[in-house]
Predict the 3D structure of the following.
Amino acid sequence: MTGAAASGAQALGPIGPASRIVIVGCAGSGKSRLASELGRRLRLRVIHADREFWQPGWRDPDNDAYRARIAQMTAAGGWIFDGVPGRVPDIVLPRAEAVIWLEQPAWLCAARAYLRTLTYLGRTRPDMAEGCPERLSLRLLDYARTFDAVLRPRLEDWLSRYAAGAQLLRLHGDRQVAAFLRSLPEARG
């Protein structure tokens, strides 16, 4: 990709150079963990979709203000967008040079999401907006359970419509994620 090469982007192991990366997958698939590690190694800022989307008290944001904020955040420089770009696929995906899709079994995603909830219960986790403490909810289980039937087709459509020029890497399970990370250089200095 010429834009990535011209920007001084680093090669991402099995895919070529990229400095604008979107990581998608089900809740609990490991998106935030991978985004943080990639950000550290590649020295790219991480945009956590949950942190930018949710307003205190788990309120939805004003849609126009949210879209404008994401457009500004992804307009220049290198970045890693961590999360499903629900209301902004037409903004984020055309700017992406690479998309990493974490493919994990639904049961594992649900278990990890609930473990994360229990770990941070009553507190705001590091990749979440302030004022949004973790709470027990059956919606999270339903989200993980229905991801493949509901969100996967939507993501596939968004990728074909908005990210046709981006490199796509599907990582199936923790072993492939670990192998991918091993293929990357450690951050220097």
